[in-house]
């Protein structure tokens, strides 16, 4: 993991002091509501439907046991004893008091954490593969570059006041678990023929009202030019992105207005000039950053797989969990584990203080004291010896974190929706819960295989419904909560290309959602070929057969 | 009415603004005081201006920050660069690092608060117009 030095610590402390002073000015009436809004947003504080919401940055989704314990403490002292894992690998607290926020930030600073740039029209927390540095299919560890981007983008003097929020994701593995195709900038890092790190640069992807798959504007960019190239893109966006309409202000709209080709030309022209005016990133700087991320020294284990096979034989429930939630590690005898927060009856991504404390100690007991947060709103424990999986599973079961549903339909990605968010058209959490209850039969869900179900409470698409294999979007129909259903979206995290969902027809009422989802599943089960997952099946047969799921009489749905 | 924040004898101070004979970019002549909108395209000739003002339409509009950086780094303008319009005390430190040297503030801004917002951070991660170094300042300094 990256380790803060005096510089980082001092910067974060000064940020806390500055924010405290800004809050005091606001509370004393020396900053207007609108002025303070802009300042607090850049420090992660929203005012939600019921209360303020504080979003804490977890840089590229990685944190230590110590940091997770501090988050648990904060949730108990300043909140209601729980936190919410967001779809951007951060954690949110839903009930802090505005006046308490500076104190919370001070607690965070003690464990080298902050809420800098977790909201507002600026460069947000960079995200990456939740198995980075541990995945079997990794080509280049993206984390040193994520950290470089974090530092470069923190309080950047030129890019703190962009037309709109700006999200960067980096992936360095064969399978893209960072959804780089649906970010403002997506970066794929790999090795060229000389074993040098190079980047493919995608721009203008994104969800929200106008979902777009990003365009590749440069291939094989040498690592030493990464920051100057980002500067060129951001400068073009900052100068020419629309500011008159917030729904047209993301970079994807600029790319579309100019056309990818002429946008690329502008970036390249700007970049050529920047190259003349600055030095590339020194190799020593990159090497310095890489040394923080050298693989942990894991003891050699050779007994792992034999024992594991035996344990699985005796415990079918454990075996199922291993099949779904345990992922290949780069080192023989080790695994990466997903701890699902998607137990029935719990809002997706919500974790209690007790659960945070438990995860923090498992990371120390079984792993290397490191935890990841996934954009599917789950925890990951990397570097777990296979011989310890059973013990971990048993403890996780007791803490309600062992649901064997990673990547299954009940592993719902869901935004806070109408229960919390003032922008919502409709509730999303109760929809997730209803579907989870409807699909409580674990064997059935297991047999369904990989299905990404994503739910957003409005067009802002925080639940990423466009890239759900099944996407559900809350819409407002004459003041009533309705839901629009789309199929065939894909975030690109298994080895196939990303795609955006297609709407199957008119939206349906809350009471109808479960019925429609049930019929969609039946249609899939009827049409699928052996070993064909939901997405492949949909891509083969298209949307037409699924339209029957909206018909009233159930027997129409099943062929 | 506005107040002017600039350095006098090496110290930041605030005084009443005096009238400036601004010219638009069409009327530009060497040694003039040039007033620009945030969407102006930088031109080499402007290096000879006596004073350049950039008019910020809103607190949240960052275009003037990029324009300032370009005037300093690309045009090579070394004279007084002034932020006018929607200049807010909490943006000053960003503006300073993009190369602004003076600021026109609305009369209702409290001078004491303004002067307290010039340097809330003692160090920064990036290079900038006023601290040009290879790559990230802080990383270049670590080893
Ligand atoms: S998608 Fe809409 S309802 Fe859901 S969290 Fe985002 S803004 Fe709120």
What does this structure look like?
- The complex is a heterodimer of chains A (559) and B (143).
- Chain A has 559 residues and is of the alpha+beta class.
- Helices cover 37% and strands 17% of the residues of chain A.
- Chain A has helices at 6-27, 33-41, 65-78, 101-110, 143-153, 226-240, 251-258, 260-277, 283-290, 304-314, 316-325, 353-366, 389-398, 429-438, 442-448, 510-527, 534-541, 554-557; strands spanning 45-47, 52-56, 62-64, 82-85, 91-93, 127-128, 168-171, 185-191, 197-203, 215-222, 326-328, 334-339, 350-352, 370-373, 379-385, 413-414, 453-456, 470-477, 480-487, 502-503, 508-509.
- The N and C termini of chain A lie far apart (53 Å).
- Chain B has 143 residues and is of the alpha/beta class.
- Chain B has one domain (2-142).
- Chain B has helices spanning 63-75, 92-97, 111-116, 137-142, and strands spanning 2-8, 11-16, 22-23, 33-37, 51-56, 80-85, 102-106.
- Chain B has a 7-stranded mixed β-sheet, with helices on one face.
- The longest helix of chain B has 13 residues, at 63-75.
- Chain B is globular and about 35 Å long.
- At the A-B interface, α1, α2, α5, α6 and α9 of A face α1, α2 and α4 of B.
- The site of iron/sulfur cluster has 13 residues of chain A, from loops.
Task: Give descriptors for this structure.
A: 559 residues, alpha+beta, Sulfite Reductase Hemoprotein, domain 2, Sulfite Reductase Hemoprotein, domain 1, 4 domains, 6-stranded mixed sheet, 17% strand, B: 143 residues, alpha/beta, 7-stranded mixed sheet, 4 helices, 22% helix, binds iron/sulfur cluster
Beta-strand percentage range of chain A: 15-25%
Count of domains of chain B: 1
Shape of chain A: globular
Largest interface: A-B, 44 and 42 residues
**Uncertain stretches of 5 or more adjacent residues of chain A:** 554-559
- Count structural domains of chain A: 4
Brief description of this entry?
The complex is a heterodimer of chains A (559) and B (143). By secondary structure, chain A is of the alpha+beta class.
């Amino acid at each position: 993991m990256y380790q803060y030095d005096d510089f980082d610590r001092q910067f974060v402390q000064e940020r806390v002091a500055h924010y405290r002073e800004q809050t005091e000015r606001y509370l004393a009436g020396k900053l207007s509501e609108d002025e303070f809004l802009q300042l607090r947003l850049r420090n992660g504080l929203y005012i939600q439907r019921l209360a303020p919401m504080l979003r804490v940055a977890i840089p590229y989704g990685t944190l230590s046991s110590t940091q997770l314990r501090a988050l648990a403490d904060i949730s108990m002292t300043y909140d209601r004893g729980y936190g919410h894992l967001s779809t951007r690998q951060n954690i949110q607290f839903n009930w802090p008091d505005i006046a308490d926020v500076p104190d919370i930030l001070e607690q965070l600073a003690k464990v080298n954490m902050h809420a800098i740039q977790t909201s507002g029209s600026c460069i947000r927390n960079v995200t990456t593969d939740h198995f980075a540095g541990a995945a079997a299919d990794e080509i280049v560890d993206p984390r040193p570059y994520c950290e470089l981007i974090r530092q470069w983008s923190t309080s950047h003097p030129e890019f703190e006041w962009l037309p709109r929020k700006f999200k960067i994701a980096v992936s360095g593995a064969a399978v893209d678990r960072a959804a780089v195709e649906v970010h403002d900038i997506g970066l794929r890092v790999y090795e060229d023929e000389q074993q040098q790190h190079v980047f493919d640069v995608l721009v203008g992807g994104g969800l929200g009202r106008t979902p777009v798959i990003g365009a590749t504007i440069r291939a094989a960019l040498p690592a030493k030019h990464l920051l100057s190239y980002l500067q060129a893109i951001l400068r073009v966006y900052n100068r020419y992105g629309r500011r008159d309409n917030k729904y047209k202000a993301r970079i994807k709209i600029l790319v579309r207005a100019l056309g990818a080709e002429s946008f690329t030309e502008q970036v390249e022209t700007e970049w050529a000039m920047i190259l003349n005016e600055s030095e590339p990133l020194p190799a020593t700087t990159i090497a310095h950053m890489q040394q923080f991320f050298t693989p942990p020294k894991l003891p050699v284990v050779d007994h792992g797989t034999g024992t594991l096979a035996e344990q699985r034989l005796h415990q079918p429930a454990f075996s199922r969990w291993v099949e779904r939630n345990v992922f290949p590690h780069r080192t023989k005898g080790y695994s990466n584990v997903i701890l699902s927060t998607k137990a029935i009856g719990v809002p997706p991504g919500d974790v209690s203080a007790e659960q945070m404390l438990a995860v923090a100690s498992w990371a120390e007991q079984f792993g290397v004291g490191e935890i990841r947060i996934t954009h599917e709103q789950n925890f990951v424990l990397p570097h777990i010896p296979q011989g310890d999986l059973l013990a971990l599973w048993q403890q996780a079961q007791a803490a309600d974190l062992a649901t064997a549903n990673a990547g299954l339909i009940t592993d719902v990605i869901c935004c806070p929706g109408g229960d919390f968010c003032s922008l919502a058209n409709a509730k999303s959490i109760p929809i997730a819960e209803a579907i989870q209850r409807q699909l409580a039969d674990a064997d059935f869900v297991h047999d369904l295989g990989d299905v990404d179900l994503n739910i957003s409470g409005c067009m802002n698409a925080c639940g990423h419904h466009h890239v759900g294999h099944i996407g559900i979007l809350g819409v407002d129909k004459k003041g009533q909560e309705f839901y629009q259903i789309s199929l065939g979206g894909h975030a690109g995290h298994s080895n196939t290309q990303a795609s955006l969902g297609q709407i199957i027809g008119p939206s349906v009422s809350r009471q109808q959602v479960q019925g429609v989802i049930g019929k969609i599943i039946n249609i899939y089960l009827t049409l699928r070929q052996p070993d064909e997952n939901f997405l492949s099946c949909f891509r083969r047969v298209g949307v037409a057969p699924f339209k029957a799921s909206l018909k009233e009489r159930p027997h129409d749905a099943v062929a | 009415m506005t107040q002017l924040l600039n350095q006098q004898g090496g110290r930041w101070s605030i005084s009443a603004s005096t009238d400036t004979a601004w010219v638009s970019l069409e009327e530009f002549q060497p040694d003039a005081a040039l007033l620009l909108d945030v969407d102006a395209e930088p031109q080499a000739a402007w290096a000879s201006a006596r004073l350049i003002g950039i008019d910020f339409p809103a607190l949240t509009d960052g275009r003037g920050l990029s324009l300032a950086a370009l005037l300093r780094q690309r045009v090579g303008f070394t004279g007084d660069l002034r932020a006018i319009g929607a200049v807010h005390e909490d943006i000053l430190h960003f503006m300073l690092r993009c190369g602004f040297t003076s600021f026109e503030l609305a009369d209702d801004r409290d001078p004491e608060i303004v002067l307290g917002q010039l340097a809330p951070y003692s160090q920064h991660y990036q290079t900038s117009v006023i601290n040009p170094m290879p790559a990230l300042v802080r990383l270049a300094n670590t080893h």
